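Section handout 9: paired folding examples.
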Amino acid sequence: MAIPVAGFGILSFFCVPALVAAPVSVKLLYAYVTYIGFGMSYTAINIPYGALVSVMTDVPTERASLSMARTYGSTMAILMVNMLVPIFVFNKDNIPQASGFIEIVLILSVLSLISWVLCYKMTEERIRRPSTAHQKIDFKLPLLV
């Protein structure tokens, strides 16, 4: 899912030459599709990433430490983005330049891909849950109680 997130992120800021002369409704459709695609693909990464703590350790203090490390890491990423974006977007006269947006999005997309691949490669699930694939579930039981 890392590639779709990066791809939709880039497409959200990319000016498609064919859309320059297109009607506003087509431009809006493009914006909706890229924005929704980015949001859905990011959610597909973020939810399992958030649930990862529960399969890494059963120790509550270690889970708290992992959650704090996740929060710290996201805070550092936000600070990095807040420092880098103005450097690329604004010129020396403090006027935003359109080319700066695509440049910084390309850089941040590559950095995010590298980060997600490293996270995937360096993470180990230590808690194995028994499979419930063959258990029969009675959906009527909660209704009868």
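Moving on to protein 2 of 2.
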Amino acid sequence: MFTKLNEKVQSQSVPFKNKYSNGGIVLDFLSLNYTYLSEAMNDFYQLTGIRISFWNTEAEKIIMAPDDADGGLKNHLNGNSAFCSKLRAIPEIDAQCHCCDLQALQQNPRKGDILYSFQCVAGLTEYIVPAYFNNHLLGNFMFGQIRSAQPKEKSSELRQQLYRDYQLDPKEMESLYEHLPCVNHDFIMAAARILRAIGSHAYYNGLFVSSSLPLSSRIYQYVQTNFMRPINVQSICEVLHISRSTLSQTMRREIGCSFVTFVNDVRIDNVKKCMQNGMSITEAAYRSGFRSTSYMYRAFRARTGISPSVYKNMLKNEEL
């Protein structure tokens, strides 16, 4: 049975088709930066102790946190708890769990529901949080492998039945079960809101980049949202799933400069804005993504024809 919780957000689902490409993850309209989203999900796990996964809109699990399973498996699809790992080591149970997850993801929650819940084959309550941005469904976060603060009799019955059917030691399994995080309704709703925010943050900060736009516009969008971070040719090629030669040709043909020059120009424009707001030259450089003041000085002179110090003095004179 699927339960829809009543907290609302103003959004609706517009499904995107996902697919894999060049070792990365591509959607018809969005490119997903796996590394950044994986880091955010692992941070969520470190703060809450709740295990989560991210599924694309075709019900494929593409990220799981933590990305190191209890059994020491270094694989981002194997972040299960000791309790679930023990159960899913049995192929029949693993298949049942997978089918249960797929059935849950195929449900159609009411537009605006922040999350909905379902019961897994072991009697645990699992939760799905659709991730939206601007009415577009980016994918679904799923979290669970937790105990409810108000345990249900049916949950215990399902577990005991599994132990009998597959000859598992009840004492050992219940010990593993007791080690699962125990949470209440307020905690679950707070976790759901955080995951919603992660989805929006991911889009705002260029973790999802629209691939329906021309390539030059996607490059511009990525740089504008990421210039404060360390970015280079390799990072943008990985996110946009393009070759270095394609990037170089597009920059030369449609933007009129190299990628490094373009990034520096965007950063220098921000340095000028920071200084106009009263920041020191060093702070403006740091806030604009430069990690070397001397390099920023050279880039500033190349962009404007004057040094940052001269520009700063010009701003002071304008104020007199």
